[in-house]
Amino acid sequence: MRGPIAAAVLLIDRILRKRYGIREFTSAPGCVLRIAIGRANREIRLSDGTEIGPGDPVGEIHLWNERIPKMSRCGPDMTWGLGFQRLVVKSLRLLADYVQASPEFEHVKAFRARLGVKGQDGEAKVARLAQRFGFEMSATTGARSLFERFHRFFDNLYATGLMLAFNPVSLRGKGFWRFGRPEIWISRKGLLDRYGNKGDANHLKTK
Predict the structure, then answer these.
(1) Are strands 183-187 and 110-114 parallel, antiparallel or unpaired?
(2) What is the rounded average pLDDT of the residues 124-140?
(3) Which domains does the chain possess?
(4) pLDDT classification of 48: cutoffs 50, 70, 90
(5) Which of 36, 44, 132, 134 could be stapled to 194 by a disulfide with Cβ–Cβ 3.0 to 4.6 Å?
(6) For the segment 3-43, what is each residue's pLDDT rounded down to a tens digit?
(7) How far, rounded to the nearest angstrom, does the alpha carbon of residue 26 sit from its chain's CA centroid?
(8) What angle do CA 144, 140, 109 make, to 5 degrees?
(9) How many whole angstroms separate alpha carbon 62 and alpha carbon 60?
(10) pLDDT at 202 (0 to 100)
(11) Per-position b or e across 104-121, b if 16+ CB within 10 A of its CB
């Protein structure tokens, strides 16, 4: 079944990427990120003082799923994790160069990504990992309206489909109904300072 499911997910993925303007910003090998411009749906204040209001443009960072390294049957071991981290750092450097040179991103003050996790332990792990890359986790509010609940349901379904199509091992231990999508943020200044030409991204910060 994985073949037909993967084909259907790929078709939906192409439609949604076109609909939301999610695109590749480089053809460089090893880049595992795509970018789009979205709008903030609430007020956000980042630790460096950057403030984003509802409706402000924000950079939307997405994984380039076809380029994510395949996991072994045992799941994401240390070798896979270190290799993926190196690809993310390289991709963020390329993104910083692109943002700095692109007039389209001149007024974008911050960038966000949504990551799939399970439960509070998963969110804590994401928060620690995000910090190593210079991101910070933002508290999210629960889905209250019918539309918000449907959107969250579809978001979970779509994310599950992508993992099933590209890296099914990553679904191990993730229950669909407890599958969360917390946001992690980095300011434009933080991105350029850390990963731009003057930034030092040759190593990850560790605690």
Answers:
(1) antiparallel
(2) 82
(3) 22-144+181-195 (3.40.630)
(4) very high
(5) 134
(6) 676 777 778 888 888 988 999 999 999 999 999 999 998 89
(7) 17
(8) 125
(9) 6
(10) 43
(11) ebeebbbbbbbbbbbeee
